[in-house]
Amino acid sequence: MNKRIIHPVEEYAASMNRRNFFGKMVQGISTLALGSMLDPGMLSAAALASSPTSSYAGLGLPHFAPKAKRIIYLFQNGAPSHVDLFDYKPMLRKWHGKQIPDELTHGKRFSTMTGTQVERPLIAEITNFAQHGQSGAWVSDFMPETARVADDLCFIKSMYTESINHAPAITFFLTGSEQPGRPSMGSWLTYGLGSTSENLPAFVTMTSRDKEASCGQIFYDYYWGSGFLPSKFQGVKFRGGGDPVLYLKNPEGMSQRVRRNMLDDIEALNELNLREYGDPEINTRIAQYEMAYKMQMSVPELTDLSTEPQHILDMYGPDVQRKGSFAYNCIMARRLAERGVRFVQCMHAGWDQHRNLNYQLEIQCNDTDAPSAALIRDLKQRGLLEDTLVIWGGEFGRTPFLQGNIKDFKNWGRDHHPYVFTLWMAGAGVKPGFTYGASDDFGFNPIENNVHVHDLQATIMHLMGIDHEQFTFKHQGRRYRLTDVHGHVVKDILS
């Protein structure tokens, strides 16, 4: 007996239940019917590229006038030591070498590296602090360039989080959840607000690490992933070596005209599939092919630093021409911002000083201090800082007590510390030369104006003109948001 071969379309139709049918109809047939009456060409690749917000304009965003048009997030993977860099604690010098009071550590979780450590002596900062600018901000001598722009910065010294390990803590900061799978902040914002650049992605991420490779931090793709949002909104990673984006160049022997004809044919096939199935990922495919084609021209121009004046390059430091360095990524962030990119995420690993605090912290500051400050100056002199929000900080802080043996000076370190740490912001909508919140005498707990990660996320969304409680996406029967069910806007830091 011959077995009947079922055609894929028949198989698809047989599996379509009532719920799936109406879901597909809402997404596909009705949308296409309405769209065809309003504009027969609205689903073409050209229309999608020229109107990046067409697929989500119905969200009604922004909710109110934004202070910021774009964000540059300088994420410092590994957790900078707040008590050595920004949160000056004279009490640590008085208590240097003495056991931290038990009432502070009782019931607190630490990583496995100090979780069973019996002796936890407090250690003074390994740097020297001074006050800077009219604001009198305390900054260590390891950050001289940051100190010079202190009056442009808004320090939050009462940040706290929940996770004690790197990957969950970073994921929490960037997605609002410790578990991978949620959309990153850049994806949320580009989904809600769209793009202002026709030739570059709305969300770009770049990574770098310390030259000594002292830190084993891994950059996971979900740090810039779109989660359950359409994949059109995930971050595009610019690589630190070779071509910034893979597969942009035409294969050998293929002319630009042949490539254009091929993309037109692929677009036509994708539009047939879109009409048949109404799958939003097909929309993504059409738009991304077209964006890649445009990036063939925009990316080489973007990455050509020969047009930058020498004094600007010098401001970013000696590593600015080395692709993949933090300095290079910072100047690229400025160039992306002035070309309309909505969200730039620069992630730099190397701050995890468990056993090398006495020598690696200074090296890490040398790599990142000048570029971070130069970015602020560069944006400011171009008039971009007034509508660009810059954020600098890690996933948690470092313990005020020592990891290791106090007699083994060479191997001094500090463990992970989620209970309080420092982060700074600058630019659009935040008070310059301002310090918010405070930690206790040992830099162990917040004692004034505590700021949770969800509070920071709510504030960032607010600065972009979004009410974080109203901006949701329905997934698996529940409405999700970046701040989950938490978060309050920190209004006192708003200008």
Structural class: alpha/beta
* Weakly predicted, low-confidence segments: 36-57
Mean residue pLDDT: 88
* Number of distinct beta strands: 17
Helical residue percent band? 25-40%
Q: Remind me, CATH topology?
A: Alkaline Phosphatase, subunit A
Write up this protein.
Helices cover 35% and strands 15% of the residues. Strand 2 (129-132) and strand 3 (137-140) form a beta hairpin. It is an alpha/beta fold and 495 residues long. It has a single domain (48-244, 303-493), classed as Alkaline Phosphatase, subunit A, CATH 3.40.720. Helix 2 (18-38) crosses helix 10 (256-277) and helix 13 packs parallel to helix 14 (357-381). It is globular and about 75 Å long. Strands 1, 4, 5, 6, 7, 8, 11, 12 and 15 form a nine-stranded mixed β-sheet that branches. Strands 2-3 form a two-stranded antiparallel ribbon. Strands 9-10 form a two-stranded antiparallel sheet.
